[in-house]
Design a protein that fits this description.
The complex is a heterodimer of chains A (about 120) and B (about 110). Chain A is mostly beta strands and about 120 residues long. Chain A has no helices and eleven strands. Chain A is globular, with a radius of gyration of 13 Å. The chains are: A mainly beta (about 120), B mainly beta (about 110).
C-alpha cells in the first residue's frame, strides 16, 4: 500500500532554514509527480510546490517562490522541501502528496504531515 | 491566479440529509476540479477528481458535477462519518488553489 512519511519538522527562528523529507513506498515513486501542501493552524489548505516525476519541472506557490526549493531523489524514493528565509507565516503542518493517477495535479495519497513552527 | 470560492463556509445537517456544497472558480477550469474531505487532525482524502470521477473506495453517496466555473459536491444521504470539512481544488493551472472549506456539522 502507498505510504508517505514526512520528517524534519520542528521549531525554527525566523530567517533560518529547515529541510523536510518525505519517504515514499508502495508505488513506483519515479513515475509520479509529487507535491507539498501546507495547512496553518486552524486554517485551510495551501498548495506549496510540485515536482515532475523526473525532477525536470518544478512549480511553486506565490508565497514561497524564491525561498523554498522542492527536489527529489528517485534512487532513494524520497521527496524534499528546502525552506529558507522562514517567516512566522510559514508555520503550518506540511504534507507531502502524490500526484493522482486519474489526471494531472490532484492528490490521491497524503502523508500524515509534519509540523513546522517558525517563532523567535 | 485562479480563485476558488466555496459556499457555504459551514452547515448543520442531520444524518440522512442530502447535502450540497458549491465551488466557484474565478476563471473557467474546464473539469479540472477535485474534492477532498478532512477530519480533525488527519490528512485530507480525495473524494472526487476531475469534477465527477469517484475516487476508488469512496462511497457512492458522494457525487460531483459541474464544468467551467461552477461545481457541486453532493452527499445523497449524510452518514455519521461524513461530518468533516470539505475542500475543492482546481488542477487546471499552477499555482494550484483550494477553496476556503465547508465544515459540515451535526444538527
Amino acid at each position: 500500500q502507498v505510504q508517505l512519511v514526512e520528517s524534519g519538522g520542528g521549531v525554527v527562528q525566523p530567517g533560518r532554514s529547515l529541510r523536510l523529507s518525505c519517504a515514499a513506498s508502495g508505488f513506483t515513486f519515479s513515475s509520479y509527480g509529487m507535491h507539498w501542501v501546507r495547512q496553518a493552524p486552524g486554517k485551510g489548505l495551501e498548495w506549496v510546490a510540485v515536482i515532475s516525476y523526473d525532477g525536470s519541472k518544478k512549480y511553486y506557490g506565490d508565497s514561497v517562490k524564491g525561498r523554498f526549493t522542492i527536489s527529489r531523489d528517485n534512487s532513494a524514493n524520497t521527496l524534499y522541501l528546502q525552506m529558507n528565509s522562514l517567516r512566522t507565516e510559514d508555520t503550518a503542518v506540511y504534507y507531502c502528496a502524490k500526484d493522482g493517477t486519474g489526471g494531472p495535479f490532484y492528490f490521491d495519497y497524503w502523508g500524515q504531515g509534519t509540523l513546522v513552527t517558525v517563532s523567535s | 491566479d485562479i480563485q476558488m470560492t466555496q459556499s457555504p463556509s459551514s452547515l448543520s445537517a442531520s444524518v440522512g440529509d442530502r447535502v450540497t456544497i458549491t465551488c466557484r472558480a474565478s476563471h473557467s477550469i474546464s473539469n479540472y476540479l477535485n474534492w477532498y474531505q478532512q477530519k480533525p487532525g488527519k490528512a485530507p482524502k480525495v473524494l472526487i477528481h476531475t469534477a465527477y470521477s469517484l475516487q476508488s473506495g469512496v462511497p457512492s453517496r458522494f457525487s460531483g458535477s459541474g464544468s467551467g466555473t461552477d461545481f457541486t459536491l453532493t452527499i445523497s444521504s449524510l452518514q455519521p462519518e461524513d461530518f468533516a470539512t470539505y475542500y475543492c481544488q482546481q488542477s487546471y493551472s499552477t499555482p494550484l488553489t483550494f477553496g476556503g472549506g465547508t465544515k459540515v456539522e451535526i444538527k
